[in-house]
């Protein structure tokens, strides 16, 4: 995953992110390198990206601009939104103050460890 500035459009990192998806281990046969489906919100509603996803063998499920809500994508997106909300609970990650990428990524990894630890404690 690459770290970009906060004022960059998310759609510019869609294809580089898909290229860095690791192989899925533990399944018999050739490991999958790409997801079957990509769920996205209205920001990704461009014919160019739909075409590029189909060329890679990925079925795009993208909400369309100008259409009313109720597509059902929210049931899949809330997991991502909730995770981002948890990460914003750490003041240091809410606004990126670090100039060096490695320090910011270290704080991000530490936050993920703390969130996971809290979740496991709730299960016990």
From TrEMBL:
Domain of life: Bacteria
GO MF annotation list: DNA binding; transposase activity
All residue ranges annotated as the Transposase IS4-like domain in the record: 2-114
GO biological process: DNA transposition
Coiled-coil region list: none
Pfam families: DDE_Tnp_1
Protein name in the entry: Transposase IS4-like domain-containing protein
Organism: Streptomyces humidus
């Amino acid at each position: 995953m690459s770290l970009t500035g906060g004022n960059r459009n998310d759609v510019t990192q869609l294809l580089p992110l898909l290229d860095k998806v690791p192989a899925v281990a533990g399944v018999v046969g050739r490991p999958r390198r790409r997801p079957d489906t990509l769920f996205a919100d209205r920001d990704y509603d461009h014919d160019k990206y739909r075409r590029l996803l189909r060329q890679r063998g990925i079925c795009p499920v993208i909400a369309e601009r100008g259409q009313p809500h109720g597509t059902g994508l929210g049931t899949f997106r809330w997991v991502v939104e909730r995770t981002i909300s948890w990460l914003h609970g750490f003041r240091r990650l809410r606004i990126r103050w670090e100039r060096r990428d490695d320090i910011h990524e270290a704080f991000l990894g530490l936050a993920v460890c703390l969130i996971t630890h809290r979740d496991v404690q709730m299960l016990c």
